[in-house]
Inverse folding.
C-alpha cells in the first residue's frame, strides 16, 4: 500500500514539473514579427531623383545672400559682306577688287560700286563679333590661279562691334582667258592675357567665287592695243586730207635729195 502511494506521489510530482516547464517555455517564446502590408517609404536622405524628370541644380548661394552673376555670352551682330570686282578687263591692265565687312544698315540697302562698270553685290550674314575672354581678328584672303593680285594694307584686321573692315586688291592678268578668284573671310579668336582658355580658335564665316574675263587683241597687251589704235587713227586722218598722198611723196623726195647732197659733199682739208 505504501509503495503504491509513493508511486502516485512521484507521478504527480513529475506531471507538475512538466506543466511548470511548459508554462515557462510559453512565456519566453517571442511573438512572430508581422510582415508589412506595403513597401516602407524611403527616408529623405536615401531618396533618389526620378529618372523620368530632369534633375535641376540649385544655384550655389553667394556669400551674403547675393545671387551668382551669369557668365557673358557671345555677341552676335548682323553684318553685311560687300564685294566689288571687274567682270571683264584687258590683258596688261590693272583693275580693282574690293571686299568690305560692315554692320548691316537699317532698312533697305543698294550696293554701289566704287569703279564704274564693276559688278557689286552685298549679302547679310549673322556673325559673332565678341567672345568672352577672347580678342577677335578678321582676315580676308584672295586666291586666283594665273591672276596677279596685290593687297593694299594688312590682311588681318581687328574685329570691333559696329566698325567696318575693307580690303582692296590690285589685279592684272598676264594673258587672255577666264579667271576664277576666290575670296574667303575667317575670324581668329585669340585668348586674352591672364586667361586659361583654349586657343587660338579659327572659323571660316563666308566664301565667294568671282569670275573675271581677260581679253586681248591679236595677243597684244592693253597698252600695245592702244598704240596700234592711235596709229591707225592718225593714218586714217592723214589719208582723208585732199592731195595728202602727193604732198607726202614730194616731202619724201626732198628728204632723199637732201641726204644725197649731204653724203657727196667734199670733206674739208685740215
Amino acid at each position: 500500500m505504501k509503495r503504491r502511494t509513493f508511486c502516485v506521489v512521484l507521478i504527480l510530482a513529475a506531471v507538475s514539473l512538466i506543466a511548470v516547464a511548459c508554462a515557462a517555455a510559453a512565456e519566453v517564446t517571442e511573438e512572430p514579427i508581422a510582415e508589412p502590408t506595403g513597401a516602407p517609404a524611403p527616408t529623405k536622405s536615401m531618396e533618389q531623383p526620378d529618372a523620368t524628370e530632369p534633375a535641376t541644380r540649385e544655384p550655389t548661394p553667394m556669400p551674403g545672400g547675393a545671387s551668382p552673376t551669369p557668365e557673358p555670352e557671345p555677341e552676335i551682330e548682323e553684318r553685311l559682306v560687300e564685294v566689288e570686282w571687274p567682270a571683264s578687263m584687258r590683258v596688261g591692265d590693272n583693275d580693282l577688287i574690293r571686299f568690305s565687312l560692315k554692320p548691316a544698315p537699317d532698312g533697305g540697302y543698294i550696293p554701289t560700286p566704287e569703279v564704274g562698270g564693276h559688278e557689286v553685290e552685298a549679302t547679310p550674314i549673322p556673325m559673332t563679333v565678341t567672345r568672352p575672354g577672347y580678342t577677335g581678328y578678321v582676315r580676308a584672303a584672295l586666291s586666283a590661279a594665273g591672276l596677279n593680285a596685290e593687297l593694299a594694307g594688312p590682311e588681318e584686321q581687328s574685329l570691333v562691334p559696329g566698325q567696318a573692315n575693307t580690303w582692296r586688291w590690285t589685279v592684272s592678268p598676264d594673258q587672255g582667258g577666264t579667271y576664277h578668284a576666290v575670296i574667303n573671310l575667317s575670324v581668329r579668336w585669340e585668348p586674352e592675357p591672364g586667361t586659361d582658355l583654349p586657343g587660338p580658335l579659327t572659323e571660316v564665316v563666308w566664301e565667294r567665287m568671282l569670275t573675271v574675263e581677260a581679253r586681248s587683241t591679236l595677243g597684244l597687251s592693253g597698252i600695245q592695243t592702244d598704240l596700234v589704235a592711235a596709229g591707225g587713227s592718225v593714218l586714217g586722218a592723214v589719208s582723208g586730207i585732199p592731195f595728202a598722198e602727193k604732198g607726202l611723196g614730194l616731202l619724201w623726195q626732198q628728204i632723199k635729195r637732201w641726204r644725197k647732197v649731204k653724203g657727196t659733199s667734199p670733206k674739208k682739208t685740215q
Q: What stands out?
A: Strands lie at 75-85, 88-90, 95-103, 119-130, 134-143, 147-152, 156-158, 165-173, 177-191, 201-215. The first strand starts at residue 75 and ends at 85. Residues 48 and 70 are 29 Å apart (CA to CA). Residues 75-215 form a domain with the Immunoglobulin-like fold (CATH 2.60.40.10).
